[in-house]
């Protein structure tokens, strides 16, 4: 069964891997992008998730092309790392506005159609840092931990309508986001990973497509770590 899938921030990194994984399963996949061009094989809709009117327009475009969104993956995210003592308030706000409130904006818009259809799947991309914490990432960890409370509350709100909401918490994954980290820092992080390496974006995508699959029909409000064992015990 082909479904209408929307992945935010799906033009590169983890989001692109997720979009490709759904495409390979035969779904009709749209991705949001902000700059550049989206991959040719995907429907790209320009959208900054910090702008409510752009979110509305993106959903209208996707609905016109693919029908109401049946699977939403809230993946768009940024980092603005720095120690709290030196963190400008704008960096805290920007990360919360994109990572947490961006998910609020798209999930709210997607919920409308899913409630009407009495089915749907929402997957929020959080982070292993949400539960374990990380020095220099108070803003990012707060936003990603916020997604857990947000997602679990939404899971309870939407369960009577047969809509599941789950949270995927990736560990260090090889993308542009982590390419910016110094090699020494990457080595330190990988040293804490029982499987001894970073994830490939496709490995995150597999967890997401599973949560959106019929096989995951009884899973909601779950936080699934995909982190090589790094956050065990959190
Ligand atoms: P990238 O930096 O490679 O990609 C980020 C994506 O988010 C891009 O498509 C970017 O669009 C999009 N994006 C950022 N801000 C906005 C915005 N305001 N509106 C719309 N789109 C936006 O990151 P990753 O692929 O590594 O990360 C994807 C998700 O996974 C993020 O939520 C991240 O926090 C999370 N994550 C990543 C980990 C990692 O180690 N890489 C670990 C744990 C979680 P554009 O190209 O236009 O900038």
TrEMBL record:
Residues annotated as domain Ketoreductase: 3-204
GO annotation terms (biological process): monocarboxylic acid metabolic process
Single GO term (MF): oxidoreductase activity
UniProt keyword list: Oxidoreductase
InterPro entries: KR_dom (IPR057326), NAD(P)-bd_dom_sf (IPR036291), Sc_DH/Rdtase_CS (IPR020904), SDR (IPR050259), SDR_fam (IPR002347)
Record-annotated membrane-spanning stretches: none
Family matches, as Pfam families: adh_short_C2
Annotated family: Belongs to the short-chain dehydrogenases/reductases (SDR) family.
Name listed for the protein in its UniProt record: Beta-ketoacyl-ACP reductase
Native source species: Streptomyces echinoruber
Lineage, broadest ranks: Bacteria, Bacillati, Actinomycetota, Actinomycetes, Kitasatosporales
């Amino acid at each position: 069964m082909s479904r209408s899938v929307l992945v935010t921030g799906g033009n590169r990194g983890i989001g692109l891997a997720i979009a490709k994984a759904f495409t390979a399963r035969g779904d009709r996949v749209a991705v949001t992008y902000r700059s550049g061009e989206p991959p040719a094989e995907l429907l790209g809709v320009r959208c900054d998730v910090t702008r409510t009117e752009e979110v509305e327009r993106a959903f209208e475009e996707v609905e016109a092309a693919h029908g109401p969104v049946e699977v939403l993956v809230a993946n768009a995210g940024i980092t603005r790392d720095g120690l709290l003592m030196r963190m400008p308030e704008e960096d805290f706000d920007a990360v919360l506005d994109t990572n947490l409130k961006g998910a609020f904006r798209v999930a709210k818009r997607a919920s409308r159609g899913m409630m009407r259809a009495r089915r749907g799947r929402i997957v929020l991309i959080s982070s292993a840092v949400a539960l374990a914490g990380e020095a220099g990432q108070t803003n990012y960890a707060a936003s990603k931990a916020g997604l857990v409370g947000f997602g679990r509350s939404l899971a309870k709100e939407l369960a009577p309508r047969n809509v599941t909401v789950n949270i995927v918490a990736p560990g260090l994954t090889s993308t542009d986001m982590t390419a910016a980290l110094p090699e020494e820092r990457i080595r330190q992080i990988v040293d804490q990973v029982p499987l001894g390496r970073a994830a490939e974006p496709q490995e995150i995508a597999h967890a997401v497509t599973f949560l959106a699959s019929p096989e995951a029909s009884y899973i909601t409000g779950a936080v699934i770590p995909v982190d090589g064992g790094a956050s065990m015990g959190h």
